[in-house]
Amino acid sequence: MSPDPSPLGSAAHHVHRVGVVGGGQMGAGIAEVCARAGLDTVVCEADATAARAARERVAVSLERAVQRGKLDRLSAEDALARLLFTGDLDDLADRQLVIEAVVENADVKTEVFTALDKIVEDPEAILASNTSAIPVMRLGMATRRADRVVGLHFFNPVPVLPLVEIVSSLHTTADTAGRAEAFVVGALGKTAIRSQDRSGFVVNALLVPYLLAAVRMAESGYATAADIDAGMVLGCAHPMGPLKLADLIGLDTVAAIAESLYEEFKEPLYAPPPLLQRMVQAGLLGRKTGRGFHMYG
Ligand code: CAA
Predict the structure, then answer these.
(1) In CATH, what number is assigned to the domain containing residue 272?
(2) What keywords appear on the UniProt entry (predicted)?
């Protein structure tokens, strides 16, 4: 294979038309930063009702940015006007980059990639996944263009946190990863780090065992949720404690990442603790359902 002449990709391949599959907390955040960066952005949800809810999520976040003085009202209105919300995956046919951000479930994500492979017309288009822990290789192999499939892993809240992990599978070409990085850095103004295609990549491989340790501590009655969180905020200057952070990420997502890590490495420290699984079964998913380790709203 010849070396990639431009590590950040060529200008000829600049991305202007972006698609986002999934308009939940991550998908809506990704769509918001794309639209704020001036990109024509189409967000695809499961149906028209879910698409309306995704639009509302972005509108609320843009309003928050205006209220915090991070964005002027005109720019917020322009960003919303650049977004199209749809319930039809076919509306992504002309996209140059599609970022999948559906639920953290390998079967669901694989189905999305198989469908995108058939729908997205440009053979040079990049198909990216915001997965936290599912192998990019598995998603690439659901398509006939694994060389154009890459992980683009954003962090929650997406409009606030600057990092994106760029994850190449064994099939991802240097050109694809370079163009993905050029998009993240050049178009979105975020900071990229590169990771090999190992479950959890860099950040979740370090973060999730820590979150699970906090759940085990609460589960065993070692300390209260409030004290565990206060310990890390006041004793280590973290912006939020581990249980509040787990609530922010979503306990279903934390459990799904733990399962992927455990499946890959078989290390007990990655196994989801019973309390976490019971809370997911109970629908206590954290901030998005109003109750997790803490109460919201
Ligand atoms: N657009 C732009 N900026 C915004 C914004 C928006 N929609 N909403 C908030 N902000 C800005 C605020 O203006 C503020 O900026 P300044 O500090 O410059 O004033 C900053 O973001 C913080 O906002 P708030 O004042 O609303 O809230 P806070 O100070 O309580 O912080 C928090 C909230 C940003 C969530 C912070 O607690 C934090 O960073 N927590 C850690 C989050 C974290 O670790 N996320 C990673 C999770 S792991 C993950 O996502 C990956 C995975 O796969 C699971």
Answers:
(1) 1.10.1040.10
(2) Oxidoreductase
SS (H, E, C) 211-236: HHHHHHHHHCCCCCHHHHHHHHHHHH
Q: Interface pTM (ipTM) of the complex?
A: 0.92
pLDDT of residue 3: 40
Same structural domain for residues 216 and 149? no
**Cα angle vertex 28, ends 161, 198, to 5°?**
60
**Mean confidence (pLDDT) of the chain:** 95
Q: Is the pTM of this model over 0.90?
A: yes
CATH of the domain at 152: 3.40.50.720
- Burial of residue 154 (CB within 10 Å: 0-12, 13-18, 19+) is buried
Q: Are 38 and 16 in contact (CB under 8 A)?
A: no
pLDDT digits (tens, 9 = 90+) for 141-169: 999 999 999 999 999 999 999 999 999 99
* Model confidence at 119: pLDDT above 50: yes
Mean pLDDT of 229-241: 98
The closest alpha carbon to 172, from 127, 210, 221, belongs to 127
Residue 57 lies in a domain: yes
Whether the pLDDT of residue 8 is over 50: the answer is no
Mutation test residue for ligand 1: of 160, 204, 248, 249, the one with most atoms within 8 Å of CB: 160
pLDDT at residue 115 tops 50: yes
Domain region containing 175 = 11-196
**Residues 148, 46 share a domain:** yes
204 belongs to the catalytic site:
yes
In a domain, residue 112? The reply is yes
Residues with Cβ within 6 A of ligand 1?
61, 64-65, 68, 70, 132, 155-157, 159-161, 204, 207, 239-240, 245, 249, 253
The pLDDT score that the predictor gives to residue 14 is 85
Considering its fold, how many domains does the chain have in total?
2
Question: Considering only CA atoms, which residue is closest to atom 20 of ligand 1?
Answer: 160
Same domain? For 116 and 38 the reply is yes
